[in-house]
Amino acid sequence: MFWSLCYLAFRCLLRVVSLSLRSEGFKELEIVVLRHELSVVRRQTPRPRLTMTDRVFLVAASRLLPRSSWRSFLVTPATLLRWHRRLVARRWTYVGRCGRPAIADEIRELVLRLARENPGWVS
User: Fold this and answer.
1) pLDDT tens-place string over residues 41-76
2) What are the DSSP calls for 8-66, one per residue?
């Protein structure tokens, strides 16, 4: 996962370098074409399946772009927050843990004996 993220970052860096060498008119035309392609794909595809790398990229891009351009994303900010909550829940959820662990029998007997011998101890 780490290497695929590094590879994706490297590819994005190369794209940025190549974009800086193009003219401003060419960039505007490319944006218009890409927006049109995106609208066509949104009409044809009911719901795209995103990989974890796609999600990481979208989250990183949302941090760099102003909120006014977030409408061009495939997902809403609420979806980004939901992904984050699931990630945190998976990180802090342990399998097989149901409540408090059981107390050993000898410790339980010792506590009960102390309670019987010291009536003022338990209130």
Assistant:
1) 777 777 777 788 887 777 777 777 777 777 667 777
2) HHHHHHHHHHHHHTS-HHHHHHHHHHHHHHHHHHHHH-SSPPPPHHHHHHHHHHHHHS-
CA 32 to chain centre: 30
**Distance separating the N- and C-terminal Cα atoms of the chain:** 55
Record the pTM.
Answer: 0.39
For CA atoms 42, 46, 51, 52, give the dihedral sign: positive
Tokens, residue 83: 């992904």
Q: Which tokens go with 67? A: 């909120």
Tokens of 49: 């399946």
pLDDT at 38 over 90: no
Q: What band does 22 get if pLDDT is binned at 50, 70 and 90? A: confident
Answer yes or no: are the C-beta atoms of 25 and 47 closer than 8 Å: no
